[in-house]
Amino acid sequence: MNFWKTKSLSELSDDEWESLCDGCAKCCLHKLEDEDTGNIYFTSVACRLLDLMDCRCSRYAERSELIPDCLNIRQLTAEQYAWLPSTCAYRLLHEGKDLPDWHPLISNQMHSVKAAGISVANYAQIESSDMDLDDLEDFILEWLE
Question: Which of these, 50, 60, 58, lies nearest to 24 by C-alpha position?
Answer without folding.
Answer: 50
